[in-house]
Amino acid sequence: MTLAPLDVTPGSTLTPFSTPHLRRLPRELQKFFRFGTSEMTNMTQATQTAAQTFQDKFAEITLTVAKPMFDEFSFDATANGYPAIVEESRDNNGDPFISIRFILDRNAILGEHPENECLFVLKGILAEKQFEVSAAYDQRPGKNGLLYEKLETRMANHTIIEDRLTKFLEAAMASRKPPVAPKPLVSPIIWKARN
Fold it and tell me: What pTM was estimated for this model as a whole?
């Protein structure tokens, strides 16, 4: 294959997708790089529609599943003297999330010692159109209590989110149990000394 010389008019801008470059490509490849305004508009609209559909799905799951579940847990925790809070916001990438933070210590204050906090986050990753579950159930020095999972949109439902939250809570409780002292060995045979 021989490439045709570039035919660029003075003062024009040359980009990898400008016509002179396209003329140098074989005909079968040119079709992949030629987008008219209508095709680009349709692609942009389709991308925006998909992103909006995902955002709507995340908002629906947050409103109908995660928020009521997190609010109920937060209410129960605070009623029993444990500090807890539910937060909704967007991260630095603009991805929406809902989280619950709590401490398994009745005398603690949220934000005072973040390493003692347990955190469960449900996030909508807009770029990937996936749900992300991340949890830190033990952030104390020397501990590495983390859970992480990505979920396809179809898997983000009440049962799955409740299951992940339950596993997280069990791990948080187990990580704070005091160590059990080993029991002394007791022989099943009783030996009596002879007189």
Answer: 0.66
